[in-house]
Amino acid sequence: MKLKRAAIAVILGLFVCLSLYSWNLRSGQLDRLSGVSGLEAVKWVLWPGEWIHDHAVAFWDRYIYLVGLRELNDKLSSQNSLMRLEIMKLREKAAEAERLRKLLDMDAVDGWETEGTRIIAHRMGPSAALDSVIVAKGSFSGVKSDAPVLTPEGVMGRVVEPGFTASQAMLVTDRNSRISVRGQLNRSAGLLIGNGDGEPLSVKYMKINAPVDEGEILVTSGLAGIFPPGLPVARITSVERSDISLFLKVEAVPLVDMEDTEDVLLLYRTIAQNATSSGNSTVSGNSTATAGE
Fold first, then answer.
1. Pair 184, 122 in one domain
2. Based on the domain organization, do 89 and 214 belong to the same domain?
3. Is 19 within the bounds of a domain?
4. pTM of this structure
5. Which of 105, 126, 146 is where one domain is finished?
6. How far apart are CA 241 and CA 121, in angstroms?
7. How far does Cα 78 stand from its chain's mean position?
8. Burial of 7 (0-12, 13-18, 19+ CB in 10 A)
9. 146, 162 in Cβ contact below 8 A?
10. Distance between CA atoms of 166 and 160, rounded to whole angstroms?
11. pLDDT tens track for 267-284
């Protein structure tokens, strides 16, 4: 029974195969079907690998691109920082050139020589109590005690302690500062006294009936022999008269910005040297005349 069924199945199978073969010979449909099926099978077998390959290549390309972009960005950022630093240096040089130009444009003072220098420190002394600056010139450059310190705006102070290569200068705002002054317009005389950093200057010993106005510029009188006459020092801010005092109560503010000034001029007296030279020549001439006689 089983053999009969198997034989029947084999015969039916052979019949179907022959039928399909004959049909395929006539129409070619099975060849086309097998070709399409094979292509689809190949596609679905190879497609995952291709997808992974494409995405891996795309990811790598993006990674390389981003790395290159980041390197370029870092390079541009570094160049930008260098350019900004260079611009800052150029601006600083331009500002320095402008300050030096103002110093050079100052009118010469008869009988005095000038020399420019830089401020290298502010407010020296115990607990920074002194209103002073350190300038980068000393006795090796000819700086002497009481040498006036100026800016294009006016008097800043005077040297009180010259060193070998640097000197300490007392500002007009220091409590120990005393400068003989006159009003630029009314010519009223007084003594300009410092009251400490941030405090207005006091003008002492101006007579009660002296003509003086608020806003008037005070200039050096030259009476003490330390400063040449006519240098601007301060501007009067208030004038008060009292019935119980013989003098006016006058306050003023310095013309120079004590905190932000960087470059100054030092004054050196030449009149005394010329007078000494003249005196020596006279003495030599007399000695010669005596010898001749």
1. yes
2. no
3. no
4. 0.60
5. 105
6. 40
7. 20
8. exposed
9. no
10. 11
11. 888 755 444 444 444 333
